[in-house]
Design goal:
SAM-dependent_MTases_sf, Rossmann fold, seven-stranded mixed sheet, four-stranded mixed sheet, disordered N terminus, CFA/CMAS, alpha/beta, Cyclopropane-fatty-acyl-phospholipid synthase
């Protein structure tokens, strides 16, 4: 979304007194070493170390502000806290103008300590770095209300636009001061109430009601495809969103995948990752296919089967509660087409070869097509090892974004050349609008009463505020990544050798 003309911060309820009581949330997740490194002891636990706390806060604040003086060269950043207001970069009309309001001084500790551990954790891969870790820690500060921001999307864009300066100066500064502050860890790090809240919202197995609040009626939790009928990828920004736009774009995406898979009436399709049955229903209803679809989610299976019954398609669609690695022997060479929409992010580099080996196992030897879509990293950022960040901790634990090349190589190797690359498309330009549409619907439809039915702990206003902020941060974080080319979204199509292309040349 465009940055506001004036710094209007998104506000949420401050933690109530009841929110500060010991909660059952404390038992929902154990602290990882990294969690210790980004959490803080409460004031009462370090009352005897007031001077040390004051000294460490001043050190953290001054160090970070010094970094920003050299790092921000594109756009304009305003930071306000209890000590005053500071400006970075040069303001120009139309530039990305972001205002951060620091509500809690713990924010400075989070950023400083994240830089220290982040540099060490990320040194094994070029995928991440201080900039990604910085966004990760800002996400935690945002979720628990330590910082308010005029525009989440604007803040993400600002970090990415100044990535080089942020990485160089943050790394240098942290190296100089990390040893000075390390002795204070025991005083400031611990299982605080704020950290317990972060641990709790990271562990939730999201409910169907949550996704109903922001997805289209097809309930596709993946990138839509926008056309001029909806004003294109910027239609919501140029003309404003219209009812039904997201539904039309998601239906277009489903049909695009099925056409790429070259399905015909009577064909049998295998799908890894059912979602809520949107693609399977369309394949059976509009293309006359039979579908076997796999999911690991009991909640998704339940709702998908309910929607399939409502559509009268029980005889054509079978939803299996099954890991893809456990497909039965009678699936061998039984399918005309294979599809998987944004499920590969959960497979992991270690299993790409096995994944495509099983696709090869299930598809017929001739006249068969496989279509996979996935959020991906550009080759320069891809690694089989991916350090913990906001996405991997709070949204999709243990996920791993592939690269297009990694998937193509795995398909070729595991099938012993029985797959031929038919096409590669990059849909990244379509994702930011998809995320904006989801964000609007979340704001309009998600209520504390609705979500507390599944998660009674979220009856606490502060816990609910942190939960909702997590999703708002996700949409902004991912939207900036796609719009700046930091992450991509590929659809890759494979066919059997010598199969006739979907559109012949003669």
């Amino acid at each position: 979304m465009p940055s506001p003309q004036s710094p209007i911060c998104v506000q949420f309820p401050s933690p109530s007194k009841s929110a500060l009581k010991t909660s059952s949330l404390l038992s929902m997740s154990t602290l990882s070493p990294r969690s210790w490194a980004v959490s803080f002891g409460n004031t009462s636990s370090i009352s005897s170390n007031t001077f040390l706390k004051y000294f460490a806060r001043i050190l953290a604040r001054s160090s970070i502000l010094s970094v920003l003086e050299d790092a921000i060269t594109v756009g304009h950043l305003t930071i306000s806290d209890s000590e005053g207001t500071h400006y970075y970069g040069k303001y120009k009309k139309g530039c990305n103008d972001v205002h951060l309001n620091i509500v809690n001084d713990n924010f400075w500790f989070r950023i400083l300590l994240s830089g220290d551990l982040g540099c060490k954790l990320h040194s094994e891969t070029s995928l991440n770095g201080p900039i990604n870790n910085y966004c990760y820690i800002v996400s935690e500060a945002y979720m628990i209300g330590d910082v308010d921001v005029s525009s989440l999307k604007g803040a993400m864009d600002l970090w990415l636009e100044n990535q080089a300066g942020m990485e160089n100066t943050l790394s240098s500064t942290v190296a100089k001061i990390s040893s000075a502050i390390s002795s204070l860890y025991n005083s400031f790090l611990g299982q605080t109430r704020s950290q317990a809240r972060l641990n709790a919202i990271a562990s939730y197995d999201q409910s169907n009601e949550l996704f109903k609040a922001f997805l289209s009626k097809e309930m596709m939790y993946s990138c839509a495809l926008w056309s001029e009928a909806e004003g294109g990828v910027r239609g919501d920004l140029d003309m404003g969103p219209s009812p039904g736009d997201l539904e039309a774009a998601q239906l277009r995406k489903i049909r695009h995948v099925l056409r790429a898979a070259r399905v015909k009436p009577g064909h049998r399709i295998l799908e890894f990752g059912s979602g809520w049955g949107g693609l399977a229903i369309e394949a059976a209803r509009s293309f006359g296919c039979e579908v076997d679809t796999l999911t690991l989610s009991i909640e998704q299976k339940k709702l998908a089967e309910e929607r399939i019954r409502e559509a009268g398609l029980e005889s054509r669609i079978r939803v299996h509660l099954l890991d893809y690695r456990e497909i039965p022997a009678d699936f061998e060479k039984a399918f005309d087409a294979f599809v998987s929409v944004e499920m590969l992010e959960h497979v992991g580099a270690k299993y790409y070869n096995l994944y495509f080996k099983l696709v090869d196992f299930a598809l017929k030897s001739k006249n068969a097509t496989a279509v996979v879509t996935a959020s991906t990293f550009p080759e320069s950022r891809y690694s089989g090892y991916q350090a913990e960040d906001f996405m991997r901790k709070y949204m999709w634990p243990n996920s791993c974004l592939p690269s297009a090349t990694a998937l193509i190589t795995a398909a070729h190797t595991s099938s012993q050349g029985r797959f031929t690359l038919e096409g590669v498309e990059n849909h990244a330009a379509h994702y930011p609008r998809t995320l904006r549409e989801w964000g609007r619907r979340l704001d309009a439809n998600l209520t504390q009463e609705l979500i507390a039915k599944d998660y009674p702990a979220l009856r606490d206003p502060a816990d609910y505020a942190a939960f909702k902020r997590k999703w708002q941060y996700l949409f902004a974080y991912a939207g900036a990544g796609f719009s700046k080319g930091y992450i991509t979204c590929h659809m890759i199509t494979f066919i059997r050798e010598n199969d006739t292309p979907a559109v012949a040349c003669d």
